[in-house]
């Protein structure tokens, strides 16, 4: 589904990514781990067209992503959930979700897409008329994921969704991602510094350090490697 080959990105003299190659598949969670500054956010921003790469390619179903504009990439079915759980606090939950549907022309389709999110996240449905500012951290994270889902993407790019959530809420969020990918066949690239919880749900794991892939393997094997954990995963 997603094929990344020899991707390199620089900001001036800073090499943020250097020769990064990997694949992500339908129905699978591919987690990208690494310390602060490893290049994780740059990777997602490059895949969604917000940052230009200097070398390499990324393809989605054989179509190039690199060199395309963000709105074209979004229309191809790639949805980016940026770090920070940005919602519009002055708007209700429902209004925030409806904003994600602007690209759909037919009103019935927009409504159906929002209703699907309420089915998936009943907690949001219960709070649909409330202002987004009243939501807890976990609910806000559901709302930004929901806002990505209303565009009916095939690939979700998630930037540190568990950051700042309690371990319990973060585990619930990971379980939700697992359901979305297993049941709905969505692919996910899950960027996390919180390696432990990401490894518990992912199908494949990649560790970035200073812009390069250090290792790519089955999550269970990474979790069992004590020296790797100590050096790159922080647990
Ligand atoms: N807009 C930018 N301009 C210059 N340097 C940047 C910019 N964004 C990130 N960097 C640098 O690129 C490297 C990778 O950053 P980033 O992709 O944010 O890593 P991560 O998300 O893993 O913390 C870091 O050295 C960071 O300082
Ligand atoms: Mg980051």
Descriptive overview:
The protein is of the alpha/beta class. The protein is built from ten helices and ten strands. The protein has helices at 40-47, 70-75, 93-99, 107-120, 122-126, 137-149, 167-184, 195-201, 219-224, 226-233; strands at residues 2-11, 14-24, 29-33, 55-60, 63-64, 78-81, 155-159, 187-192, 204-209, 212-217. The strands form two sheets. It has a six-stranded mixed beta sheet with strand order 6-7-8-3-9-10, sandwiched between helices. Strands 2-1-4-5 form a four-stranded antiparallel beta sheet, covered by helices on one side. Strand 9 (204-209) and strand 10 form a beta hairpin. Helix 7 (167-184) runs parallel beside helix 8 (195-201). The longest helix has 18 residues, at 167-184. The two termini are 31 Å apart. The mean pLDDT is 94.
Describe the structure using short key phrases.
single chain; 235 residues; alpha/beta; Rossmann fold; 6-stranded mixed beta sheet; 4-stranded antiparallel beta sheet; 10 helices; 10 strands; binds adenosine-5'-diphosphate; binds magnesium ion
